[in-house]
Amino acid sequence: MNVLIIGATGFIGSAVAAALAEAGHDIAVLRRPGSRELPYRSVPGDLTDPASLKRAAAGFDRVVHVGAPLGEELDLAGVDALVDAGSPLVYTTGAAVLGGGTADEETEPRPHPFVSWRAEVERRVRAAGGRVVRPGMVYGGDGGGVPALLAAKAAERGTGVYIGEPGVRWPVVHVADLAALYVAVVERAEPGTVWHGTGETVRLDEVARALGGGTAVSWPLEEATAELGPIAGLFVLDQDISSDRTRRLLDWTPEHTAIVDHLKAEPPVPAR
User: pTM for this one?
Assistant: First the structure.
C-alpha cells in the first residue's frame, strides 16, 4: 500500500514507519518546513495548518496519524481535514480516552478532562470509516515519554517517584509490539473500528521502584500538578484495559510483557 505517516520523526511514528516499510509498503512522511529529513519520500504539510493536511493526505491507500496531540481546536480541525482528503485514516488516541476502571475495545469513551476532546476525534474518525488505535504507555528503544520523565525524577531524588497513592495501574506496550499492531491495522482492520495497543497492565509504583533501584516514594498530586500541570492527573487514573479482541481479530501477540524487568535491564535516558 501507499501509506502516508504523520508524526514519523517521533518515538512511535519512527517505529511505525520502519515496520510498515519492512512489511513492504511504500512509505511517505509528512514533513513541515525545517524539520529533519527521513529516508522516505517527503510530503509537505504541517499539523498546525489543517488545509495543508488535506492536500498532503489525498490519494493515499492509508494515512497513519501518530503525531502528538496539539489541543482541542487543532486536533478537531486536523481530523476534519484528513477526513475531507478522502484517504482511509488510522488515527492514534490513547488509553486515557477511556477514563478509569476496566475497559475493552467496545467500552464507550469516558475521557479524563486532560484529553476530553479526543472522544470526539475518535467519533469523527470512525464515522468516516477510519480506524482508531489506543496505545497504553509506550516504552522501549530510545524513546522518551513517561518512562523518561519518571527516570528523570528518580535521578533527581535518588529514589523512584510515583504520583499519588500506590497501586494505580496503567496499560503499557513496548514500541516494537505497537509498531507491529499498526502494520496489522493498516493491512487487515475493518473500517470504523477501534484497536487497543496494550501488552500488559502494571502498577506505576512498581515502575517507579524499577527506575529507583528498588525504592520509591509518593509525589503528592498537588505538588506534581504545580510542576507538570494538569497532565499529572493522568498519573492517578487507575486503568485495566483489555486488548483481547485486538489480539484475537488481528492475530497480534505482544512479545514484550515484562516492563519492570525491561526497565531494570535497560533504563530509559532521563528526560531533560
Answer: 0.96
